[in-house]
Amino acid sequence: MIRCGEKQETGVLGVIIERGITMKQLKGLKGLLPYLLAKKGSFLLIFLLSVLDAALAILPIQLIGMIVDVLSTGESFLSPFLGNRVEHYVILFAVVYIAKQVIDILRGHKNTLLAQKIIEEVRDDAMGWAMVSYRPYKEERKEGDLVSHLSGDVDAVVRAVRGR
Description:
Layout (H helix, E strand, L loop, with lengths): L1 E2 L5 E2 L5 E2 L4 E2 L9 H5 L2 H34 L5 H4 L3 H48 L1 H6 L2 H20 L2
Antiparallel strand pairs: 1-4, 2-3
């Protein structure tokens, strides 16, 4: 967060910051760090889901190899657990494939929710700061214009982070 002293400074969104008003500074990716650090648990969950998704992406290939082993030699690495029946391996293959798809959907959902929450917080902070800090701009323009400009600026930050 930046704290303005006696002099006025130009903020990230191109609006003057009056004394006594605070807002998180958004210059570059480092400016998003306070928003990201507040969501450490979500990042950890998404990371763990990504690792599990990657592991489950490799497992069906291994299971196909084991099915080939059972068909050709009569046993495989998992024979002590699954026996030598191909049907058991096919069922395990289906369960792993379904679990991978569910985890992939969950990971994507959590990732989207996290991104939307961060964007919402940036917009809320920018809007709250702008409504309080720069009264002359607010007096000469309608609040809808202010909301439109801030939304456009936040969208520009989001596009820059996403690389689009």
